[in-house]
Amino acid sequence: MMKQKVTAVLLSAFIAFSSAGVSGEAASVPGKATWLWDSQAMAADASGTVAFLVSKQVNTVYVQIDQRIPASTYHMFIEKAGSKGIRVYALDGSPDWVDAGDSGRQQLMDWLADYQKTATARQKFSGIHLDVEPYLYSGWTNNRDETVQAYQALLAKAKSNAASLRLPLEVDMPFWFDEISYSNSYGKGWLADWVIRQTDSVTIMAYRDSAAAIRDLVKHEMDTAVKYKKPLEIGVETAFSAEGDYLTFAEEGEAQMNRELDALKRAYTKVGSFGGVAVHSVESWKTMKR
Fold it and tell me: Does the keyword Signal apply (predicted)?
């Protein structure tokens, strides 16, 4: 009888694995994430911050690392968040990280290495989330090819750092990286495809105010994520934008945003690579109209 049970379990596991392989979709559980840039506010009111996240049904928060804040503050916040089922990722990044010096990445990774060593299991970060936007660096205009390659080198090093810390590496990426080509020591192709392939997960900054428009923007990225069996998260904006009302839900308000996000979730129900949605950010989300 025991042998039959074991055989049945193994057979079920094999079928599940085979089905995932046939579909070409990544095994991911869609969630709801957000960015928390004001670490000082988090430090001043950890309980209030966690309560806000719980009220918005967030299960992953990207907290910017401010190295002036004591590690014990992050210990406390991660424990509080974890008790509510919320994962905390270490967030950082800057356009000038693509500079040849690459000191920003190294400082973050050194800080994280020290932090993870001294933290208990309930106090550790669950992953690394980078927001490095190379198109805001001066080299993007002056020498794009070189800047793209420097950006790729940075992510390759970050992936190695993350692996040594046994943490997943996630990155923010604009939807239009599928229009940026590269041909260098990293091969040849579209930058969006390379980033999705080389990292553990990508959050697409698909800043539009309707599910239909967002789906049009991320079609290539979603297809690529399915191809490489990687989770793809879709990010939306809640702050007012001088570039146009259609980029954000600030005018429509939270109720309309939630309806559009629900429509996205329904559209991607059968797409295993859909990693969920991310709302940018805690600071503007708190003040947007309901």
Answer: yes
